[in-house]
Design a protein that fits this description.
single chain, alpha/beta, two-stranded antiparallel ribbon, globular
């Protein structure tokens, strides 16, 4: 948890410094604009059939008080559509479900301590064995992209397909979900009984498009980008329900820190920060995260190259990093 709070502190210090430059009237304008954006997003999402989403925005929030305002507004306006928050304190304070998954740091640590290449490659699965033993068959959501999702699924033991679902972090979520569905079908599991959580760079447009893609059938002539509000899901000419997999969105930065174009002076002072903090080393050995995006690889260059040799580059792409 130190990671979350340390990074939130950095973001809030930046916010406070910028806020001091504004008069009381300008602060009213800033927050009025941010509230307008938030409520417009909620209005578009409200009453979308079958949609589920939660707050994953603690690390990059504008401030604690703003995140609390957002969480309370989402809960009040969206009702059962809003599943909860990854902020355990806010979940406790507002009687919401605390929602989250395991983290990249765990397989990174086991991999760093591996002495041989084979131990390195199987560390991602050893972590899952330890996890399911610790939690006795609960909280079984995969996070497969630490060293690349495609290689993870290609080499995973069969019992991994019995886990409840997957959270996609660094791969295009449309591709990641389709890949997971195909893998489940190949392993003889019914994807409709599994859960797919998208969690990287989401905003209302992407969430609605993903829901259309995974929770029903998009009719010929339409694409996910044609779903802009709840009413689009009521048009049988565009879409019919019939889930391919249970879909949920873990909404982060652009839920709790969308102050873009809200500054009354213009500029980017209140734009969200891209904050990343991962494990540096374990037992004195350097740690690495490859991810599904070359831009997100972290670690010493020599070690990154070694990990890429061991795990391969299947399915890894070059993509811009979304704040």
């Amino acid at each position: 948890m130190w990671e979350i709070y340390a990074l939130s502190a950095i973001s809030e210090l930046k916010t406070r410094a910028n806020l001091k430059r504004l008069s009381e009237f300008e602060l009213d304008i800033l927050y009025a604009r941010a509230k307008t954006k938030l409520w417009e997003k909620m209005e578009r999402l409200r009453c979308t059939p079958g949609l589920r989403l939660s707050d994953f925005g603690t690390r990059r929030r504008h401030s604690f008080l703003w995140q609390e305002y957002v969480v309370k507004a989402m809960s009040d306006v969206l009702g059962n559509t809003f599943g909860g928050t990854s902020n355990t304190y806010l979940a406790y304070q507002h009687d919401l479900e605390a929602i989250g998954t395991n983290a990249h740091e765990l397989p990174m640590a086991l991999a760093a301590m591996a002495r041989k290449d084979e131990e390195l490659k199987t560390a991602q699965y050893r972590l899952l064995e330890m996890w399911q033993k610790t939690y006795q068959g609960e909280l079984l959501i995969l996070l497969p992209d630490t060293f690349g999702s495609t290689q993870f699924f290609n080499n995973a033991p069969d019992w991994v397909a019995d886990w409840t679902g997957q959270r996609a972090d660094s791969k295009d979520p449309f591709l990641a979900g389709d890949e997971y569905i195909a893998w489940l079908e190949k392993r003889g599991r019914d994807p409709r009984q599994k859960l797919f959580i998208a969690s990287d760079g989401l905003d209302a447009d992407t969430i609605l498009g993903l829901h259309a893609h995974f929770s029903g059938e998009i009719r010929a002539g339409y694409t996910p980008s044609d779903f802009r509000q709840a009413g689009d899901f009521m048009d049988e000419k565009k879409w019919t329900p019939g889930r391919r997999i249970r879909f949920s969105a873990g909404w982060g930065t652009l839920l709790t820190n969308d102050f873009r174009n809200c500054n009354p002076h213009g500029g980017v002072d209140f734009n969200p920060l891209s904050l990343v903090c991962k494990l540096n080393d374990a037992d004195g050995r350097p740690a690495v995260k490859l991810s599904d995006n070359f831009q997100k690889a972290l670690g010493q260059r020599k070690e990154i190259e070694r990990y890429q040799r061991v795990f391969g580059l299947a399915g890894v792409a070059e993509a811009p990093v979304v704040t």
